[in-house]
């Protein structure tokens, strides 16, 4: 579904990603963890080219996105993103947030898009908020709308960029619940997260990035119970202590 | 002979100003209509990815902001026909001057409002597969437009008042009409007071209308 080969990314003279290879299979849930500034969000943002990779190759759903001829708009709809800060459109109702992409990008009729939008809002438990504006929602509700907005595009993969980091602790659970449900339904997901519990429970594979490189990867049981890389041991020690 | 204020003359003056008032309104509305289009285009050019477009918009904005409108009007009306051989009717020249002049200021208003929108909005738009221009149209512009309203109101008021300068190119607008009345009745105090009152009523009207529009749009909340 996603194949990353030897990805490098520099901001000016600062090299953030120093050669990353990653292969995500259809239906797989991959969690990326690592200290802040390690480059994990940048990897995600290169996958839908919100950041331009400096070098390397990224193939998403069979399309080489590093090829300038690729229509990135369609790729972005196939590999859509859920943001830390939600980034809902504040001037549109919740339902309109969810239907905009399907209508403008997928060419659905408004009626069709609204019907499906309502189903998706029901799925994330927010059908009764369809005609509210984002400002009238809590952080957890906003993020669930953002997930519904992503699902409405019927993407092949959803990229989650620290989806619970901006939430009050008591609101994290409701968002993770929705994400777990998606994982069970077979959605391909790449999740940059600090939620070790979620990674342990849901991920098929966990990846630890530090210093712009993948330091360790593996299935969660092994990854968390028997970390080999000393940096990962150090990182897990700090995170789990809390 | 002592000066004696005659309120009756002020009142009598109002209907005589009507012809000039019409022209002032026509030029203001026409000028601001084209000025808003021009300003929006120049404002978008100012934040475009093309260096050429950015420079072009920059030159336009700096030139217009850096020269008096009176000079711009006289240059267009008296100067340009000498070079082009085509005379422009005063009203048309007036509308062009107001449009080109207000456009330069509106460009900066548009640019500032668009740049004040959280970059996450553009990223979110792109992430659901919208193109850059679709994101601008459906997501950035509607939010930016609300933030433009108060500074646009200011600019509308300034442009309305600036139409009075067009009397130098022979546009029979409000102030010019007043001047013609004074030439007949010599009641400069009363006539120019009446002229001032008419401008004041219009500028207060613009301010009120834009406040109402702002309120109306605010019913839909913004973060």
TrEMBL record, chain A:
Residues in ABC transporter domain copies: 2-236
Classification via SMART domains: AAA
Positions of transmembrane segments: none
Domain of life of the native organism: Bacteria
Protein's membrane topology: Peripheral membrane protein
Annotated signal peptide: none
Lineage, broadest ranks: Bacteria, Pseudomonadati, Thermodesulfobacteriota, Syntrophobacteria, Syntrophobacterales
Entry's localization field: Cell membrane
InterPro entries associated with the record: AAA+_ATPase (IPR003593), ABC_ATPase_HisP-typ (IPR030679), ABC_transporter-like_ATP-bd (IPR003439), ABC_transporter-like_CS (IPR017871), MetN_ABC_transporter-like (IPR050086), P-loop_NTPase (IPR027417)
Organism of origin: Desulfacinum infernum DSM 9756
Keyword Transport attributed: yes
GO MF terms held by the record: ABC-type amino acid transporter activity; ATP binding; ATP hydrolysis activity
Pfam families noted in UniProt: ABC_tran
Family note: Belongs to the ABC transporter superfamily.
GO cellular component, one term: plasma membrane
Protein name: Glutamine transport system ATP-binding protein
Keyword vocabulary terms for this entry: Amino-acid transport, ATP-binding, Cell membrane, Membrane, Nucleotide-binding, Transport
Matches recorded under CDD domains: ABC_HisP_GlnQ
From TrEMBL, chain B:
Residues that span the membrane, as ranges: 23-45, 57-80, 86-107, 191-210
Keyword Metal-binding appears in the UniProt entry: no
Chain segments annotated as coiled-coil in the UniProt record: none
Pfam families for the chain: BPD_transp_1
PROSITE patterns on file: ABC_TM1
Gene Ontology CC, one term: ATP-binding cassette (ABC) transporter complex
Domain (ABC transmembrane type-1) ranges: 21-210
GO-annotated molecular function: transmembrane transporter activity
InterPro entries: AA_ABC_transptr_permease_3TM, ArtM/GltK/GlnP/TcyL/YhdX-like, MetI-like, MetI-like_sf
Keyword Membrane: yes
Entry keyword set: Amino-acid transport, Cell membrane, Membrane, Transmembrane, Transmembrane helix, Transport
Main location class: membrane
Localization, UniProt: Cell inner membrane; Cell membrane
Superkingdom, natural source: Bacteria
Alphabetical GO biological process terms: amino acid transport
Membrane topology classification: Multi-pass membrane protein
NCBIfam families: HEQRo_perm_3TM
General function of this protein: Part of the binding-protein-dependent transport system for glutamine; probably responsible for the translocation of the substrate across the membrane.
Family statement: Belongs to the binding-protein-dependent transport system permease family. HisMQ subfamily.
UniProt protein name: Putative glutamine transport system permease protein GlnP
């Amino acid at each position: 579904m996603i194949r990353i080969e030897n990805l490098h990314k520099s901001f000016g003279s600062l090299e953030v990603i120093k050669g990353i290879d990653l292969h995500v299979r259809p239906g797989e849930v991959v969690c990326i963890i690592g200290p802040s500034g390690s480059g994990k969000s940048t990897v995600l943002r290169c996958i839908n080219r919100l950041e331009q990779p400096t070098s390397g190759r990224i193939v998403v759903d069979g399309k080489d996105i590093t090829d300038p001829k690729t229509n990135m708009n369609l790729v972005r709809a196939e590999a859509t993103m859920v943001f830390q800060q939600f980034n809902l459109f504040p001037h549109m109702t919740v339902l309109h947030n969810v239907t905009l992409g399907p209508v403008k990008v997928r060419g659905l009729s408004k009626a069709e898009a609204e019907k499906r939008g309502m189903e998706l809002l029901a799925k994330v438990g927010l059908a009764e908020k369809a005609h509210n504006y984002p400002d009238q929602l809590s952080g957890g509700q906003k993020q669930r709308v953002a997930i519904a907005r992503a699902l409405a595009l019927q993407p092949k993969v959803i990229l989650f960029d620290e989806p619970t980091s901006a939430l009050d602790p008591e609101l994290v659970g409701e968002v993770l619940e929705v994400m777990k449900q998606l994982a069970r339904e077979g959605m391909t997901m790449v999740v940059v997260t600090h939620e070790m519990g979620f990674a342990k429970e849901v991920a098929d594979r966990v990846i630890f990035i530090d210093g712009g490189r993948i330091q360790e990867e593996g299935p969660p049981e092994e990854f968390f119970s028997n970390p080999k890389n000393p940096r990962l041991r150090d990182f897990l020690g700090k995170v789990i202590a809390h | 002979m002592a000066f004696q204020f005659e309120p009756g003359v002020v009142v009598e003056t109002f209907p005589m100003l009507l012809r000039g008032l019409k022209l002032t309104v026509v030029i203001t509305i026409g000028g601001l209509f084209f000025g808003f289009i021009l300003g929006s285009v120049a404002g978008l050019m100012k934040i475009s990815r093309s260096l050429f477009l950015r420079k072009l918009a920059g030159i336009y904005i700096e030139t217009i902001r850096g020269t008096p409108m009176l000079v711009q009007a006289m240059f267009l009306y008296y100067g340009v026909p000498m070079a082009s051989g085509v005379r422009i009717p005063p009203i048309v020249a007036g509308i062009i001057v107001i449009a080109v002049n207000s456009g330069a200021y509106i460009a900066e208003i548009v640019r500032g409002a668009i740049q004040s929108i959280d970059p996450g909005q553009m990223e979110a738009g792109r992430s659901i597969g919208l193109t850059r221009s679709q994101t601008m149209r459906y997501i950035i512009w509607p939010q930016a437009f609300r933030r433009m309203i108060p500074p646009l109101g200011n600019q509308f008021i300034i442009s309305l008042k600036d139409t009075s300068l067009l009397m130098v190119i022979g546009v029979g607008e409000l102030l010019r009409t007043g001047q013609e009345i004074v030439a007949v009745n010599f009641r400069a105090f009363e006539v120019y007071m009446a002229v001032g009152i008419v401008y004041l009523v219009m500028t207060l009207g613009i301010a009120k209308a834009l406040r109402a529009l702002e309120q109306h749009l605010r019913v839909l909340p913004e973060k």
